[in-house]
Amino acid sequence: MTASQAVADVVAGDLAAYGARRCFGLLGTANFRISHALVENGVELICARHECNAATMADAYAKATGELTLVSVHSGPGLTNALTGIGEAAKSRTPLVVLAGDVPIGAVKNNFYIEQGEMVRAVGAVPERLHTPSSARDDTLRAVTRALRDRQTVVLSMPLDVQNAPLASNIAPLELPPVPGRPHPDPDAVASLADALVQAKRPLVLAGRGAAIADAEFALVALADRVGALLATSVCGHGLFSQNPWSVGISGGFSSPGADQLISESDFILAFGASLTSWTTKKGKLIAPVAVVAQVDVDTSKLGYQMPVQLAVHGDAKATADALLAELDRRGIKERDGRRSEAMRERIRLGDNHHAPHPDESNAQFIDPRTLSKAVDAILPADRVVASDSGHFCGWVPRYLRVPNARASCLSHSFQSVGLGLASAIGLAIANPGKLAVLGTGDGGFLMSIADLETAIRLGLRLCILIYNDSSYAAEVHYFRRQGFSTDIVQFPDTDFAAIARGYGARGTTVRALSDLEPLKAWVADGASGVFVLDGKINPNLEADWHAEHFPS
Question: Which domains does the chain have, with CATH numbers?
Fold first, then answer.
């Protein structure tokens, strides 16, 4: 006699066998069965308070760990609530499988009925479906394969009648296809890169998220060392080269004064796994007109898409860097100083965000966000992970809150949605158990996502939340005020976030001056356990330089 279980139970077992360890979700009738089955198969379920936050937690967790990561949401509104988080993950090419409960096949009069596939396709995710009980295991394998092998965010719709149908359970899980090798560049393309490197007098190696995913840091450092190049990252590659004295940090809107100058002086920019967006290049103004730009990426659609490039190379970041080093070896190119000298080392140090001076625009009522950020960075332990929400404030986080490596940073900016920061910090904290997680967020974004402050406290996370509180949607205030509009409709009464934090069971303090940071120092001295909220009353009249530059009137 053939033993049988429900499809949901068998699929849950398969997902666990494929390597899923954690699922982020919010439960309803259409996803309860699959979620319960996952727990029965040893998958930890992290229950969020909003589906968008569940998807964003999973996005941050997957980026930090590289694991098969799951999201579980109810049909209809459960999925629609999650769409912004799914859109962020899809735009980031995060390998994620969203298990979306669905109405029974043909139940078009059901209140929860929507065309789920069309909806997720609209935000860039890949729709898949359990079509029948007999195809369910193949359907699941296809969804997981597309997520892991194609680096896609996949939404697997799971009709209730299919989930509940019986299925033989004594058959071993299907096997994932083998992991493909790294895409290697064409030798002629490598030769062209070598020609350009040898001729360059002021080369720069620029790395993005693709380089971090490829674990290319050591290869890129070796390449830069060989030719005496400086190093930089896109904002999505933030944290790469963080301990390297020849790194100028982030390129683009969030760069330091020194980085701006040194990138602009470069005559050859070699980008690995970086899309070269308008943010990274300051709409092209950061790149000298005479500079040669080369772009290396595993995705051919990215090559030259954001800006023209002189050399486009299809290849994995690490494989291409290794091939380029081998080509330099073949040519007998020895290590050279290039741009490197003690004077350059000091120029980089003095020009970074922590040493370059800024005018302190604090007053009796408000603190300058730059002054606040530097002080908080100095107080918190260096071994940390840092997440950022989006909004007018967002550049102060990567500029001033340092991270030890690229996996320790999560900037949920691909969709430029406000309100994803808290969930990103929770996902990042779960991926790094025991480490202090730090969140930089605005007052507007924090209020959007505040329900999951309870989740952070319930899970016992170590989390410091720095709220840049100017009681407004500041991006709109500064942009439209410059155009002569009244901005009263995007300004609000002050919110006492420290009091709200205490109501949730966290610790909190209000900061208007550096002396108000004494409670934070005491918390750190006590071991920084639990959640601490800093309500930073920042100067509302200070417009961030990157915002004024990127969004001129």
Answer: 4-168 (3.40.50.970), 187-350 (3.40.50.1220), 369-550 (3.40.50.970)
